[in-house]
Amino acid sequence: xxxxxxxxxxxxxxxxxxxxxxxxxxxxxxxxxxxxxxxxxxxxxxxxxxxxxxxxxxxxxxxxxxxxxxxxxxxxxxxxxxxxxxxxxxxxxxxxxxxxxxxxxxxxxxxxxxxxxxxxxxxxxxxxxxxxxxxxxxxxxxxxxxxxxxxxxxxxxxxxxx
Length: 162
Prior knowledge:
Blueprint: H1 4-27, H2 34-44, H3 47-64, H4 71-86, H5 95-120, H6 126-150
């Protein structure tokens, strides 16, 4: 049974992570630091909490961006698919796996941006999207390591690798 203190600690930690993520989004446009949080949540808690974090962060991502609605839904859906498919081949908590996910997201960003721009009739900024994809590929594993190190011990699940 989960203690009430852990639930409050989880809410406070994820709220702080969200605030920091919004600040990073405003400071460095095109970089998604919520993606490492989704992966961390899937590793540590999974299920219900990850769904609600994803829902809130999709709303934040869609509201802060200038693309038509749908980018965030597709982005986090593909991230979840990358994680679920990849954990069959890699240790779910390894830095190598996080680098592979980062590379996947780095390639996905320009492709998804192109697709959403095409559907919305918006000019596609190829150079900018590719640079953001490269930056996302580099930042993702680094952000995951920081989030993993800062994640409270009291919230960690003592489970075998996924």
